[in-house]
Structure formats: structure tokens, C-alpha cells
């Protein structure tokens, strides 16, 4: 039996195909595709099909499970509209049984049509189930391209206080910061360089993928999102984009200067996540941390 599991995000769609035999996992294969749902959501059925067929013929898939966060993209007026559109496209794509991750468990198409918001941004629920297999009592941190989930686990069950993204932003269980698509100006107010403090330009100049490329923490293949300026993803181009955050360029800043800026920025992002982690840890009285991403 083969089951395909999709996580349909605003920017990336991830797939895992799990092959079972006698209730044991024989094989797992994974793939992903960059699909900006805000501008190209009509391509979702094609992308879903291609992802599976990169692994196996689609008619070998016996069932499909789907989680989503794409409902929040600004192509949709409301999250309800987004959920229903994603479900419609998935139902048109697959002939086999299909179910959706919801905040209270798996949902059918009919159940989602009655309460669409139960499937909105519920992918962390699926992640939490994996975390419970690692430790009965921990805080599970999952950092992706765009967001970081901070999920408390107690007595083998997730015990998040917030259920929606809106609620989790208040409880510290969701931090809208990630390793690729986060605008540096969204969490930087000032930076330090050469013993001076500089305010940053609040523009779409550079994102975290530029920082992690400069610091050799990701590869060119990992940089799967678009650049802000439409230019290439080389280390030098990343440096140019980071320099612009200070209204500068590589004539006025050396490459060593930009590396220092990248290190400073990386530390500030770590502190942003640590602040939320402290909030969750103090609320839940948990101190074991498990990380993934």
C-alpha cells in the first residue's frame, strides 16, 4: 500500500510517499516543488501530479493525506475561500481516497465544506504527532522556509494553547520567521557595524535565504524561492542584496563587512525564536527541546 502525504504551503508544496507492507514501513521517498500560490495557484493540480510521478505512477497511490497553509496567501479574500479552493483542486486531481489534516484530526471533503477553518494552517498538527514519538515531554521546534512552529508536548500529546495561527502568534507557538523567505527588515530595526549602529531600510531588499547563503548554511539548491530583485542566487548577488538593507552596495561595504552583517542578522533571528521559546517554556514548564526543519 502506498500513501502520499502533501503539505501545500504558500510557497512550497512538499510530498512524502510511504510504502507499507503488513503495517510496516518499507520505504519513504520525498520531494518538493516551489509553487507561489499567491500568483500561480491554478498550477496546483499539475504540480501535485508531477511530484507523485517523479516517485511512482500516480495509479500506484492508494490514498492521499493533505495538510495546508496556502489558504492565507493574498490570492484569496478569506482563509475559508483558500481552504475550499485547495480542497477543490485536490479532489479534481486524485481519484483515490483523500483526507485532510484538521485541528481535531483527519477530515473528509464533506466535513471541510461544513467547517473549512478546521483545516486552515493545521500542518503543525501532523508535525506534532511525529514529535510525540520522540519524547513524551518536550518542546518541538520546526523551522521552515517561512515560519517556525514551537509545539509543546506533554504526556505524549501536543498541548498547544493556540489552535489557529492567529491564536498561536499570541501564545509564542508560531513565529513568522524562517530560513528562506523572511524579509530582513521584518525583524531588524538596527544593525551594528564598525562600532556604529545603523537603522535599516524597510524595503524588500534582502531575505533570510541571502543571509544563509552568505554564511554557507544553505546551498544553491536549498535557495528554492525567488530573489527579491529577480537576480541570481550567487553568494555575490546575495551580498549585494544584504548591503542594500543599509542603503549601501559592494563599493561602500567590503565582502567581509557583509559577512559581519549576515552574522549579526542570523543572531537576531535566533533571538527572535528564543524569545517565543522562552514564552512557551515558561507557560508549559518544559525544558527539553527537540528541533527539526
Can you characterise this structure?
Helices cover 34% and strands 24% of the residues. By secondary structure, the protein is α+β, with helices and mostly antiparallel strands. It folds into three domains: 2-121, 2-Layer Sandwich (Nucleotidyltransferase, domain 5), CATH 3.30.420; 125-178 and 272-292, ATPase, nucleotide binding domain (Nucleotidyltransferase, domain 5, 2-Layer Sandwich), CATH 3.30.420; 184-265, conserved archaeal protein q6m145 (Nucleotidyltransferase, domain 5). The protein has a six-stranded mixed β-sheet with strand order 3-2-1-4-5-6. Strands 7, 8, 9, 10 and 13 form a five-stranded mixed β-sheet that branches. Strand 2 and strand 3 (24-34) form a beta hairpin. It is globular.
**Would you identify the CATH architecture of the largest domain?**
2-Layer Sandwich
Question: What portion of the residues fall into strands of 2 or more residues?
Answer: 15-25%
Low-confidence segments, ≥5 residues, pLDDT <50? Answer: none
User: Helical amount among residues, as a percent range?
Assistant: 25-40%
CATH topology of the largest domain: Nucleotidyltransferase, domain 5
Write the layout of secondary structure elements.
Elements: E1 2-8, E2 12-21, E3 24-34, H1 37-40, H2 44-53, E4 63-68, H3 79-93, E5 98-102, E6 105-107, H4 109-114, H5 123-134, E7 138-143, E8 148-154, E9 157-158, H6 165-171, E10 174-175, E11 190-193, E12 196-199, H7 208-214, H8 235-244, H9 255-284, E13 289-292
Parallel strand pairs: 1-4, 4-5, 7-13
Antiparallel strand pairs: 1-2, 2-3, 5-6, 7-8, 8-9, 8-10, 11-12
Helix pairs in contact: 2-3, 7-8, 7-9, 8-9
Amino acid at each position: 500500500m502506498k500513501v502520499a502525504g502533501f503539505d501545500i504551503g504558500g510557497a512550497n508544496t512538499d510530498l512524502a510517499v510511504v510504502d507499507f507492507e503488513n503495517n510496516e514501513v518499507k520505504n519513504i521517498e520525498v520531494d518538493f516543488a516551489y509553487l507561489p500560490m499567491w500568483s500561480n495557484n491554478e498550477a496546483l493540480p499539475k504540480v501535485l501530479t508531477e511530484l507523485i510521478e517523479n516517485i511512482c505512477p500516480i495509479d500506484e497511490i492508494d490514498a492521499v493525506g493533505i495538510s495546508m497553509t496556502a489558504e492565507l496567501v493574498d490570492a484569496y479574500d478569506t482563509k475559508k475561500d483558500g481552504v475550499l479552493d485547495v480542497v477543490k483542486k485536490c479532489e479534481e486531481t486524485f481519484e483515490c481516497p483523500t483526507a485532510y489534516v484538521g485541528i481535531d484530526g483527519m477530515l473528509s471533503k464533506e466535513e471541510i465544506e461544513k467547517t473549512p477553518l478546521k483545516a486552515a494552517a493545521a500542518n503543525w498538527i501532523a508535525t506534532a504527532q511525529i514529535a510525540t514519538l520522540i519524547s513524551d515531554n518536550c518542546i518541538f521546534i520546526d523551522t521552515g522556509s517561512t515560519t517556525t512552529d514551537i509545539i509543546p508536548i506533554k504526556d505524549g500529546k501536543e498541548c498547544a494553547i493556540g489552535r489557529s495561527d492567529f491564536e498561536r502568534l499570541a501564545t509564542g507557538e508560531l513565529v513568522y520567521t524562517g530560513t528562506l523567505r523572511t524579509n530582513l527588515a521584518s525583524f531588524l530595526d538596527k544593525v551594528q557595524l564598525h562600532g556604529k549602529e545603523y537603522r535599516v531600510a524597510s524595503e524588500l531588499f534582502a531575505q533570510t535565504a541571502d543571509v544563509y547563503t552568505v554564511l554557507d548554511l544553505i546551498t544553491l539548491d536549498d535557495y528554492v524561492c525567488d530573489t527579491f530583485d529577480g537576480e541570481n542566487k550567487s553568494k555575490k548577488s546575495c551580498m549585494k542584496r544584504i548591503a542594500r538593507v543599509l542603503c549601501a552596495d559592494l563599493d561602500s561595504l567590503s565582502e567581509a563587512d557583509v559577512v559581519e552583517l549576515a552574522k549579526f542578522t542570523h543572531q537576531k533571528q535566533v533571538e527572535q525564536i528564543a524569545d517565543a521559546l522562552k514564552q512557551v517554556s515558561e507557560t508549559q514548564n518544559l525544558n527539553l527541546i527537540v528541533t527539526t526543519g
